[in-house]
Amino acid sequence: MNEQRQALLDALGAARLPEGGIAWSMVMLALLVAIGLLVGIAASVRWARRHRRAPVAVTAWTDEAREMLARLGERSRRADEASDEQVRDWLAEAAQLARRVALVDEPREEIAALHGEAWLQRLDALVGRPLFSVAPVSSLASAPYRPVGEAPRAALPVTHAALEALIEAVEQRGRTPASTRS
User: Fold this and answer.
1) How far are the Cα atoms of 71, 77, 87, 89 from residue 83, in angstroms, in the given order?
2) Is residue 20 over pLDDT 60?
3) Is residue 65 part of a domain?
4) How far apart are CA 125 and CA 114, in angstroms?
5) What integer pLDDT is reported at residue 178 of this predicted model?
6) Alpha carbons 163 and 52: distance in angstroms, whole number
7) What range does the domain containing 157 cover?
8) DSSP codes joined into one string, 14-64
9) Residue-averaged pLDDT of the chain
10) Is residue 14 assigned to a domain?
11) Positive or negative CA dihedral for 132, 135, 136, 140?
């Protein structure tokens, strides 16, 4: 056993380690690979978080829009009992809802500057048919800014139906909110 051990030690003594110390090129390569992996993992995590949140945001705007539409619907059924100021306020809230829904589908820069007939035509384009640019729904563009008494009561139920069609159209497109688009 001693002889065998001595033979192994002699063979080991003849073995030589590579000269030159540390291979810096291999260390740098390993470091670059490690950095690349970290960047890849960080990008994957960010992508996963962004795409996981999108459906929640889409659902959130839909629920909020439908709640506001339901409140407007309840108030529009009592339009005959409403004062002129309440009718004007209803139309102002309806215009605000239409703008919020449009902002879900279109970039903020394109929607914010629109008013009057151009605004109504953009809403028609979102729905895919002329609903907002025809009377009495067209009063949505100007009635909230007119003096009390000039807002048409007949516009309320028709405007409610147009808003419902707008929400449906934007929802069917299945787009994420413009604020989360990159």
Assistant:
1) 17, 13, 6, 10
2) yes
3) yes
4) 13
5) 47
6) 29
7) 57-180
8) H--PPSSS--HHHHHHHHHHHHHHHHHHHHHHHHHHHHHHHHHHHHHHHHH
9) 81
10) no
11) positive
Tokens of 156: 């309320």
Name the one residue in this structure whose structure tokens are 């009992």: 81
pLDDT beyond 70 at 103: yes
Residue 89 lies in a domain: yes
- Alpha carbon separation from 157 to 6, 17, 72, 75, 94 (Å, rounded): 103, 90, 9, 10, 11
Looking at residue 49, what is its pLDDT? 81
* Total number of domains constituting the chain: 1
Among 20-24, 107-111, 152-156, the minimum mean pLDDT is found in 20-24
**d(Cα 138, Cα 155) in Å, to the nearest integer?**
8
Give CB contacts under 8 A, 24+ apart, made by 48-51: 50/180, 50/182
Distance CA(6)–CA(70), nearest Å, equals 94
The tens digit of pLDDT for each residue in 22-61 reads 677 888 899 999 999 999 999 999 888 877 655 555 567 8
Q: Specify if 6 maps to a domain.
A: no
